[in-house]
Amino acid sequence: MHKYFTSVAIACIFSATAIAQAPQAPATNTQPISKSRILQVDSAVVTKHKVTIKGQVIPYTATAGCMPIWDNDGRPIAGVFYTYYERDDVTDRANRPLVISFNGGPGTPSVWMEIGYTGPRVLNVDSEGYPVQPYGIGENKNSILDVADIVYVDPVNTGYSRPVDKSTPGTKFFGVNADIKYLAEWINTFVTRKDRWASPKFLIGESYGTTRVSGLALELQNSQWMYLNGVVLVSPTDLGIQRSGPVSAALKLPYFAATAWYHGALSPELQKKELTDFLPEVEDFTINQLIPALSRGGFLDDAQKKDIAAKMSKYSGLSEKVILDNNLDVSYDLYWKELLRDKGFTIGRLDSRYKGIDRQTSGSSPDYNAELTAWLQSFTPAINIYLRNELNYKTDLKYNMFGDVWPWDNANDQTGENLRQAIAQNPYLHLLIQSGYYDGACDYFNAKYSLWQLDPSGRLKDRLKWEGYKSGHMIYLRKEELAVASENLRKFIQESIPKPGQAAKY
Fold first, then answer.
1. CA–CA separation, 316 vs 36, rounded Å?
2. Are 193 and 278 in the same domain?
3. Are residues 214 and 363 in the same domain?
4. In this structure, how many other beta carbons lie within 10 angstroms of the beta carbon of residue 321?
5. C-alpha angle with apex 244: 283 to 409, nearest 5 degrees?
6. 217 and 263 part of one domain
7. Spatial distance between the Cα atoms of 493 and 149, rounded to a whole number of angstroms
8. What are phi and psi of 275, to 5 degrees?
């Protein structure tokens, strides 16, 4: 269990706006570098840059800074760090989309999508997303900055964001509904200060960030009177949509199948199929045979049980014995340990393309997350280099890749229902879900299930869309998928903006 932070203060460094002109050199007219870990709550550093996207040179302004969270008496209780990218050669800002971006954890900042997916700079990794040296960043030719301005938001205790002092209870920030409430207030402040009320607005979240933005969609409508055009969920959580017992046990299998296919653990007959041609067969078996079989529990006929185990073995790459020993319900942990056990490897949780090596081959779960340690190796130096050297944000405060937000209150998670209500109430609002087939933390078939259950009436489904990618939790780390996912996101933004004169009505 993590302890709650009690001693660090507010996150921001400069008392006035500072401006730099070059993207890769610090400005000469900034305030002196802060030597303190106690920073100011309300400030910004502004720099000018260019990026080439789809062959077009895009000039833009980057703002790195903090804005406050206030209590009911108007006193600042925290500073929320953000980076804001605004295209310069735009004359009609009212029709220019604004994308508000969050990541997950819930204790991680927005670094992952900022320098991995949608921002104008992208970290240096190989074509499959593995770390390479020298660490750093380069131009992101796939950024969506050509079609939308973007703000990346770091919730309290992530990145440089901090509470003002230890007297502010963590319950103000650290919970499903507390998180949504204070971030909605912050978004209102941001949109007002940046004069973006007229702009079409989009929320994008990854991992726990999908819980966050699903709740924010309704909170912004009901409490801030701010209406969105789109919500994008990248590698979504369960959004509080219930699944348990046989359903929960069965829904894992398509992810197991995708992983086994990737590692060549299936029969030649299945391996020769394209992944996206193979998976519908597994999905059909899961819905129409596995869930009914698991529903019978210990009273399932022995012959049926053996038949189901044989099919699960065929699709998962595991032995029938392992499946039967676990009563047809193999845990994620055991799968990550078992699939390549005979080869001496474990596989990653967030991205099962990654392999790890444990102290011993026996056991029921991996020693560590092979994918996460690889990502931290490349992302951590890149974001520190970028913020300091290119955005000219200089501080001695540690940039929290994982901040202390515990205990986190998960009670009353109704975010899936909140999202449904927001879509139903706002005819302009569209939803896009993007999932990686090799993601075992927020697996693709559970994301599909959430989409199916989101609107029981079926009357909203023309505004709901799901997409799958041959990657893991961070779908964009494979460069091939980055290009496709970015283009799909670009199209979603453009298609979610109503035609001139098109009213929001049924």
1. 53
2. no
3. no
4. 10
5. 120
6. no
7. 11
8. -55, -45
For 452-479, what is each residue's pLDDT tens digit? 999 999 999 999 999 999 999 999 999 9
Residue 86 pLDDT greater than 90, yes or no: yes
Give the C-alpha separation, 366 to 345, whole Å. 9
Give the Cα separation of 72 and 300 in Å (integer).
58
CATH number at residue 434: 3.40.50.1820
| CA-closest candidate to residue 143, choices 24, 23, 54 | 54
Instruction: Examine residue 480 and state whether it is found in any structural domain, yes or no.
Output: yes
Q: pLDDT tens for residues 299-316? A: 999 999 999 999 999 999
Instruction: Kindly report the pTM of this predicted structure.
Output: 0.93
Burial (CB < 10 A; 0-12, 13-18, 19+), residue 5, is middle
**Contact call for residues 247 and 291 (beta carbons, < 8 A):** yes
Tell me, yes or no, whether 421 lies in a domain. yes
Boundary (domain end) residue, out of 306, 335, 368: 368
Number of residues that this document lists for the chain: 506
Nearest 5°: CA angle at 187, between 181 and 189?
110
Q: In terms of domains, do 144 and 103 share one? A: yes
Compute the distance between CA of residue 470 and CA of residue 477 in angstroms, rounded to an integer. 10
Same domain, 424 and 455: yes
In a domain, 409, yes or no: yes
Same domain, 196 and 96: yes
97 upstream amide cis, omega within 30 of 0: no
> What pLDDT score was predicted for residue 36?
61
Residues 262 and 234 in one domain: no
Same domain, 234 and 343: no
Which residues constitute the domain of residue 78? 18-240+376-495
Residue 7: pLDDT band by 50, 70, 90 thresholds? very low
User: For residue 28, is pLDDT > 50?
Assistant: no
Tokens describing residue 155: 């919730």
Residue 4 falls within a domain, yes or no?
no
Collect all residues with Cβ–Cβ distance below 8 Å to 497 and sequence separation of at least 6. Answer: 95, 97, 200, 229
Residue with tokens 């992810």: 255
Domain stop point among 313, 346, 368: 368
Distance, in Å, from the CA atom of 209 to the CA atom of 273, rounded to the nearest integer, reads 34
Provide the pLDDT confidence category of residue 318 given band limits of 50, 70 and 90. Answer: very high
**Kindly report the CA angle at 377 between 376 and 378, in degrees rounded to 5?**
90
When divided into structural domains, the chain yields a total of 2
